[in-house]
Amino acid sequence: MNLSQMRTIVRRELHDEDSENYRWSNDELDRHIARAVNRLSEAIPQQQKATIATTADSREVDISAITDRVMLQAVEYPAGRFPRAYQRFCLWGDCVTLLGDEVPDGGNAFIYYGKLHTLDAETSTVPAIYEDLVATGAAGYAAIEWAAFAVNRVNVGGDKTPADFLKWGQNRLEYFRQELKRLGRRQRARINQLYRPAYPAVSKTTDYGP
């Protein structure tokens, strides 16, 4: 799947396939597709792993070299142990602070993080199973934008055309957002099973007093 192919699917969703009289330009659809891809990335980011050297006697790890980061999932230090040594950490800006007992000695740390998906003229990192979902979201954004633009303008579809597009787009976006919410919950459950959380879970039954 590339951007041109995704654009074709979105036009099919919108019934905008007359190349002599497109309602949306390619640039407009590309913008809506990019927005849908970004929303997908927030729920199901592209899983990445980076190797970053620590600084001896410092708990802080600079991750500014990691671009397009959506979330930080786990930090493994020292890198390469078995079983893996996942560390508790906190994140502030581009600085990760390790909270475990072991102070870094300059060795490598593995950073597991989620990254924005890409969908361009050549390639895509969007999993095939979610391509139709991205198209649905992009079509919804496009329909709502056109409905807002068409209000109080003369059109051959009659007075109800902007309202119809608005309702259609809202229905598509509602489905898109519900699916992202569902998929995001499933993603978080999987991460929590694989990695220790940054902070210990707070007991819901024990009263530790003032």
Structure description:
The chain is of the alpha+beta class. Helix 1 crosses helix 3, helix 2 crosses helix 3 (131-150) and helix 2 (26-43) runs parallel beside helix 4. It has two domains: 3-43 and 118-194; 46-115. The protein is built from four helices and six strands, in the order ααββββββαα. Strands 1-6-3 form a three-stranded antiparallel β-sheet, with no helix packed on it. A three-stranded antiparallel β-sheet has the order 2-5-4, with no helix packed on it. The relative contact order is 0.18.
- Strand tally is 6
In DSSP terms, counting alpha (H) and pi (I) runs of 4 or more, how many helices?
Answer: 4
Give the biggest sheet: 3 strands, antiparallel
Q: Rg to the nearest angstrom?
A: 23 Å
> How many angstroms separate the termini?
57 Å
Shape, per Cα inertia axes:
elongated
User: Strands of the largest sheet, in order across it?
Assistant: 1-6-3
Features:
3-stranded antiparallel sheet; 17% strand; disordered C terminus; elongated; alpha+beta; 210 residues
Strand-helix topology:
Elements: H1 3-14, H2 26-43, E1 46-53, E2 60-62, E3 69-76, E4 89-92, E5 95-98, E6 108-115, H3 131-150, H4 161-194
Antiparallel strand pairs: 1-6, 2-5, 3-6, 4-5
Helix pairs in contact: 1-2, 1-3, 2-3, 2-4, 3-4
